[in-house]
């Protein structure tokens, strides 16, 4: 079965910082990976699909890359509204999430 | 605009069943699959299954097979998720999500607001 492992599980950063989250798959999945943002009490929001394609309306400070088994998600300059939990996903499998908090 | 509106919170006793609805609007419902995802308190996202609203065909997560049933009513553009033999571990926020697709890449592009199901004696 496919497993997606995110690291780190918890990240503390400041407004303006550049942050990167890694998602590793236990088998090759080409670039079939999506990233979501979830804020407390809200449904997840699609940010990126096909590993690097930004969903319509998502700010360009968000980006993704990778293929095969290793993927990265980057926020180039953290904004206050970016503090949330981020998940990678390959259709029926989600990573365990990375909680991004204000330092 | 695309909207998925779910039914309200439920409190159930262990062993009972719950049926959550997800009414879709703003697009042709039969053109997109609907997935169900749940999230236990303080936990991550767990995929439960998917229904093709056009054909009514379903695929369920192995863990839930035998307890989960997804159905649809195309006349009311509503999809349903029923979970039976409830136990405390089923306490969670249940989401429906539309399955989008671009060039073979599949993702969940619109989500319902979530339905809290609490299982407690």
The helix content of chain A is under 10%
Q: Please report the total strand number of chain B as a whole number.
A: 11
Q: Over all CA atoms, what is the radius of gyration of chain B?
A: 14 Å
As a percent range, the share of helical residues of chain B equals under 10%
Count the strands of chain A? 11
- Tell the overall outline of chain B: globular
Question: How many alpha or pi helices of chain A?
Answer: 0
Low-confidence segments of chain A: none
Count of alpha/pi helices of chain B: 0
Quote the average pLDDT of chain A.
97
Provide the structure class of chain B.
mainly beta
Secondary-structure element order of chain A, N to C: EEEEEEEEEEE
Average the pLDDT over all residues of chain B and give the rounded result. Answer: 97
Low-confidence stretches of chain B: none
Strand-pairing-aware structural class of chain A: mainly beta
What profile does the largest beta sheet of chain A have?
A: 7 strands, mixed
**Into which percentage range does the β-strand content of chain B fall?**
over 45%
The SSE string of chain B, one letter per element, is: EEEEEEEEEEE
Verbal overview:
The complex is a heterodimer of chains A (103) and B (121). By secondary structure, chain A is an all-beta fold. Chain A has strands spanning 4-7, 10-13, 19-25, 34-38, 45-49, 53-54, 62-67, 70-75, 85-90, 93-94, 98-102. In chain A, strand 9 (85-90) and strand 10 (93-94) form a beta hairpin. The model of chain A has no long low-confidence stretch (mean pLDDT 97). Chain B contains no helices and eleven strands. Helix content of chain B is 0%, strand content 55%. In chain B, strands 2, 4, 5, 6, 9, 10 and 11 form a seven-stranded mixed sheet that branches. A four-stranded antiparallel sheet of chain B has the order 1-3-8-7, with no helix packed on it. The interface between A and B is medium-sized, with 22 and 21 residues.
